[in-house]
Every structure is written in C-alpha cells, then in structure tokens.
Amino acid sequence: MKRIKLVENMRAKLDEVFSKYLLFVGNGVEREYKKCYIKIPSEMIIPYKVMKTSLRQLINHIYGKLNDYANNLDAMTTRAILTTKNEFVDGINQLFIEEFVGDMVKYYSFDQIIDNNEHSVTEEILNSLVFNGIPPHELILKKNCLIMLLRNINPAEGLCNGTRLICRHFERNVIDAEIINGDYKGKRVFLARIPFVPNEGDKCPVQFKRTQFPIRLCFAMTINKAQGQTLDYVRIYLPEPVFSYGQLYVPLSRAKCAASVKMSIKPSNCNKYCDRTKNIVYKDLLKHVDEDD
After folding, report:
1. For the segment 185-214, what is each residue's pLDDT rounded down to a tens digit?
2. How crowded is residue 180: how many other Cβ atoms within 10 Å of its Cβ?
3. What range(s) does the DNA helicase Pif1-like 2B domain occupy (predicted)?
4. Whose CA, among 88, 122, 249, 272, lies 20 to 30 Å from 80?
C-alpha cells in the first residue's frame, strides 16, 4: 500500500497567491497574531455591523437583487453563505425565503411521543424541538428555492445526505424537486415525508418521532455540509469563531479564487478586530503525518 500526500488545492490552482494562502491556513503556518488567530486578507472582509445589517450585506454581495436569480438557476446554485452552526443557518435562510419571489408553501410535521406512558409533554413542546439532522416542524418553501436532503434516501439514484435540490412543484404529500449537483444533476425526484428520531447524543428530554419531508433550505448551509462542494461565490458568516479542526480552511477553499470569497467576522471580547479569526489546526498531528512520510 502506498500513501499519497495531497499538497495542492486543485480548485484554486489558477490563483497562485490564494492557493498558497490556503495551504498556509490548512497547515496552520499562516502568521498568528495571538494563539490560533490569523488575519484574513482585507479584500475578503465585509466589516461586521449589527447582525441583520451584516447578513443583508452578505446576501447583497452574493446575490444582489435576489429575485433576479429565481429564474437564473445555474447562477443561484453556484453560490452560498457558509457558517458554523445550524442556528445561524436557520436565521439566514429565513431572511432568504422571506425575500425570495413567489408564494409561500408551508408543510407541518407530525410529532408524537414514542413512550405512550409519557403524558406531560404537549404537542406544542414537541413542535418546538430542534435538533441537528432533523427538519423543523414548520417547513416554509417557495417554487425554485434551494433545499438540501437530510437523509440517505436512495444513494444509487443520487439521493444522499447533503444532496442539493430545487423545489419545482408542491403537492399535499409530495414535493417535486430537481437535483442540482453531482452526477445526477438535472434529475427530477419526488420526496415524501419520512420519520426522524433524535440520536442519543442529542440529549433530547423526551423520546419522540417527527414525520416530515427530509429537507431544509440551503441558501445558507453549515461549513461541515459544504465539504466536497465547489462554489463560484462563497460568503462566510462568523458571528462566533470556528470551533473544530479545519473549519476555517473548508469554507475558504470552496472557491476557485480570492475574489470569489467574502467574510464577515463579528468582533468579541477575545478578538476586537473584524479581520481576524480563529484557525484551528492540530499541528502535532500534521507533524506526525509528515514524519511518517
């Protein structure tokens, strides 16, 4: 068995300066201004203001007039806002769907307690519960809006966790959608509600089952969900620093050149600068890999 080391970012190979910067960020050798904090090039920065203002700036930078893209699907599907947590993703997607052209369609989940002896939890409480990988009780959609699949439904036909789609038509119990990425791009599929149960690690106060369409909006998505994707335009929203290994490198490296990346960083007590953020890299781990080679 031969070990092969990846040393070049193929997406950004036509922008040598950006490619080198990505390599430095990924290897943890970009200059640190304090422990783990690095400076982002000024041309990538959109100065952070209050939350809603900063989000609207990001939306305007990536889409301009959002409704112009409702019928320009190729352009719309090659851009995204990336952030760290689902709570930030949900807030951004809510702004998007409110401004997106078209009539709203709402789908509600069917939530039920698994333990029939548990009577203290009301349906309203179940509806309010939110967990990673489980769709919300209320799904708000519009024709041509972007969605992402949350489960492996049929990998052999391109329906995998993380597949991006566009809503084409709505029925009471079926959503007609079109795959927009991967080998099955352009394929029309029909999605139905399926059951979801929280994982043990979710620390759910009560065992319950939610039956809902296995999707969520994805004008914005978490950094982790963006792994492996190539985008023409990337906007990175960091109201909090990244919290895991490689989580800064991933969004920066989704684009092909520096001009395609913009970032908004919220200053904090730990970091008062809007152009510096945390870069978490396990240098000792990389060192051992290099020594093994």
Report:
1. 999 999 999 999 988 777 787 889 999 999
2. 21
3. 124-167
4. 272
Please tell me the distance from the alpha carbon of residue 256 to that of residue 101, in angstroms, as a whole number: 29
Q: Beta strand 194-196 with 188-191: parallel, antiparallel or unpaired?
A: unpaired
Start-to-end CA distance of the chain, whole Å, equals 13
Residues contacting residue 280 through CB under 8 Å, at least 6 positions apart: 36, 242, 243, 244, 245, 246, 247, 248
The Cα 241–Cα 206 span in angstroms is 31
State pLDDT tens for residues 223-272.
999 988 889 999 999 999 999 999 999 999 999 999 999 999 998 877 78
Rounded to the nearest 10°, the torsion over CA 61, 66, 70, 74 is 0
Residue with tokens 């809510």: 94
- What is the model's pTM? 0.88
> Boundaries of CATH 3.40.50 in the chain?
12-63+75-84+223-293
Q: Is the dihedral of CA 32, 237, 163, 192 positive or negative?
A: positive
- Helix, strand or coil for residue 179? strand
Q: Classify residue 99 by burial, with Cβ atoms within 10 Å: 0-12, 13-18, 19+.
A: middle
Q: For residue 191, count other CB atoms closer than 10 A to its CB.
A: 19
Helix (H, G, I), strand (E, B) or coil at 23: helix
